[in-house]
Every structure is written in C-alpha cells, then in structure tokens.
Amino acid sequence: MNLFGLCLSVYITIILLSINSNNVQGRHHIHKQKNLKADKRSHVSESPAYAPSPEGVPSSYPPPVTSDPTDPIVPSDPPEDPSSGCTYDVTSFGAVGDGTTDDTAAFRNAWKEACASESAVLLAPSDHTFMITSTIFSGPCKPGLVFQLDGVLMPPNGPDCWPKEDSKKQWIVFYRLDDFTFTGIGTIEGNGEQWWDLPCKPHRGPNGSTLPGPCDSPALIRFFLSSNLVVTGISIKNSPQFHMKFDGCEGVLIEKLSISSPKLSPNTDGIHIENTKSVGIYNSVIANGDDCISIGTGCANVDIDRVICGPSHGISIGSLGVQNSQACVSNITVTNAIIKDSDNGVRIKTWQGGAGSVTGISFENIQMDNVRNCVIVDQYYCSTKACLNQTSAVYVRDISYRNIKGTYDVRSPPIHFACSDTVACTNITMSEVELFPEEGELLDDPFCWNAYGVQETLTIPPIDCLQEGEPESIAESSSYGCY
C-alpha cells in the first residue's frame, strides 16, 4: 500500500472510532435501585368529592395555651440515611383492627418509624376498625409526614372504659408538628353517647337538673403548637366534646370535612380554633350540638368559605373576655355559607368585664334557613345566672353583614345587637340583609343597644335602632384595641 492509501486508512479508522465513542456516551445512564417499599403517593387515596354546593352559591372559591401535653410519644432517633416516601401500615406493626383489641401500641410504634422518615405515610387501612386510647403523637418529625385514615378509628366506649391513667380532656393530640397532613376516606367515631349523659352535663341530672362535680370529657382531635397543617377528607362523628381543636397553630388548611353529632349533644363544637392564625376552612359540612365553628381569642386571618352548618349553634366568635381577660380577634371572613335549623346564625359573644377587641369581621353571602338569632352580637354572655354588670368590655368594631338572606325562627328577633353599656359597638355595616319568618307573617323588630353603624340598603325587617355616627366616648373606647 502506498503512503497515501495508508494515511487514508488511518484517517477513516479514527473517524469511525470517534463516532462509536460518541454514540456510547449518548446512551449512558445512571440506574438507581428502585425502592421496593410502597411509594408515599401510591397509597394515598384520593379525597372524596366536594361536599354539596350550597344552592345559589358560586361554585368557585379561592384558651391561651394553658400547658404542654404530658408524656408525648418522642420519635425514635432517625437512622443516618432513613428511607423516604415509605408507607407504614399499622397492621404491619401488630394492629388488629377488630374494634375491640387495643391497637394503641401499634399506632405508637408506626408513628415513631414514620416520624423519622421524610415524606412518610402512616396508614390505617380500610376495612378495619381500630380502637386506641388517649395518645399524643409528638414531633418534631421529618417534613411531609401524612397520617392517612382510610378505616375507622375510635376511642374506648365511654367514661367507664376510659383508662384511669389517661387524660379525660383529650383523646388524640398532634404536638409540635410542621408540614403535616391528616387525610383519608375514613371515619373517626367518637363514641360520645355515654359522655353526653353524665349527670354533670346540662340538664342531664335528675329531673332535668345539672349536678356539680368534675365533668371532663375528651376533645377528639387536638392540634397543639403546630404549623403548616392540612386536614382533609375525613368524617368525624359523635365526639364526647369538641370534635377538632387547634391551639397555638399557624398555617392551617381544613377542607372537605364531614362532622356530625346529634343536635342535643352538649359542647360538641365542630371546629374550634384558639391562638391560631392564617386559617382556611373550606367546603365542609358540620351538624352538631354546639357551634359549627367557634373562634376564640388570639385568632387572626381566618377565611371560612362554602360551609354548610346545622343543626347547630351557628358560627361564633367567642365567647371572649371571660374572667376579665383580654381577647384579641381580627380579620375574620365568612362567605358563601348555609346555616339551617340552628339556635344562632353568625354570632359574636363576649363576657362583661373583658378587654381587647374584635375587629375586621365580614359575613357575606349567607343563607339562613329557620335560624334563631340570625345576626347577633351579645356582650352580656353568661353561662350561669350569676353574672354581674361590669363596666369594661371587649371592643367590637368594623363588622359588616352583606347579602344575608333567608328565614328565621320567630321565637327570637332575627337581628340582635346587645352592646356594652360603656363600650359601644361601632362601624357596623348592613347591606342587603333580608330575613323573613319561617312561619307566620310576624316581622320581629330588631333589637339594638349602644350599637352604631350604617344601613347601605333597606334591611328587612327594618333596623331603625342602629344609631348613626360614633358615640361620644369613641376616644375612650379606642384604648381597648389590641396591638
């Protein structure tokens, strides 16, 4: 072969090797071993469909902390490289789920493992009924933890079955958590009937009396000192006392809940929030024996939208200012709600002798169906008959009622503004408020006492008792604000 041919052959060989090398490099991949444990999202069931849309409502929608819980479940020390995205099925930890076996230990052990794993799921599967005793599920945990309830979860059946060493004030507590979700298609059955019939409960004693004595009853679910919480999809029934409480929390999303207990079950508030900020409560159905939603002191930036409430005691801010305490509540909105067959509609209630303020409250687009006290501010709230008149009060101001329509129970006037003798309610706005008797033709006159505001449109029934302008003592009243 001459010199030219040899050079040509070498050149072609170099080109071919270069092309082959580039092709191999282009097909190169890094293969990770697939995690054989169940992926977090593969077992997370879809939330149930939205609750029924209120008729005529648009379909689119955008105590001070008293003590730390004792004896919490402290998460186990995480391994150096904990698995992430795992599902921890409580039945794999020994839970039986037959409705009678005590499955507490299995839930606690599953929690310890899930808490130490990022984006983990603690799963209580369907087709099981789990009974556990009073338990504190404590953090801090790895971020993204999900407690998924697809079966039934319940406490012991009544006070006689409640372990003597357990607190009777709470059943399940979620404590010091961040970025936590409580979800599923399951049910929490509270077994509250025997608690409601204790003789210390209102009118449950002999001949309808109320006997003295300790009367502790457990709230079913309590979130305490936690942040960035999501609660969605679950049904909660028949709580001995409050169904769900949030104390000292921030960043809470609650949606698509179903809460139910009988109309005469005592103190069974649906959702209670206290010292909690930045809360959204959406698209839920609540029927119970007390307030559907109650908002205590220390709450701000609360948005409630598309809630069906009743039978119940309505949606309440308060009670506030008990035992001469300061109460601060601000920036609360309630929109696109239905309240039916309830003792109250939208209510603000404060004790005499309190301090602080309730300000920036908006009630809008609310349908009332056979409701007593549809619109009520009561600054003379008293749970007994022994309350004395006092001069100080929580200052109620900047309250708006817009597009509140429907029917009222004629046993009480549909609009009731009973403000403090010394601290008037100011800047009340009424617009498109139209309330008619559920039965008969009687249009009760609204009641006002020391209430100031404006009617932007004619109110039915007419509210001639609402005073224009501001009281002479407004400067003095302003000292009751919260800063």
If you had to describe this structure to a student in words, what would you say it looks like?
The protein is mainly β and 483 residues long. The chain is built from 4 helices and 30 strands. The protein has helices at residues 3-26, 104-115, 193-196, 474-477; strands at residues 87-89, 98-102, 121-124, 129-131, 135-138, 145-149, 152-154, 170-175, 178-183, 187-189, 219-224, 227-232, 235-237, 244-247, 250-255, 258-260, 271-274, 277-287, 293-295, 299-309, 315-320, 326-340, 346-350, 355-371, 375-378, 395-408, 415-418, 425-437, 447-449, 451-455. The strands form 2 sheets. The protein has a 19-stranded parallel beta sheet that branches. An 11-stranded parallel beta sheet has the order 5-8-11-14-17-19-21-23-25-27-29. The longest helix is centred in the N-terminal third of the chain and has 24 residues, at 3-26. It starts with a helix and ends in a 6-residue tail after the last helix. Residues 1-71 and 73-82 have low confidence and may be disordered.
How far apart are the termini?
98 Å
Strand content: 35-45%
Task: Give the total of beta strands.
Answer: 30
Give unreliable regions as ranges: 1-71, 73-82
Mean pLDDT: 85
Q: Which structural class do you get from the secondary structure elements?
A: mainly beta
Helix % is under 10%
Note the main sheet: 19 strands, parallel
| Radius of gyration, taken over Cα atoms and rounded to an integer in Å | 29 Å
Number of alpha- plus pi-helical segments:
4
Q: Please give the oligomerization state of what you see.
A: single chain
General shape: globular
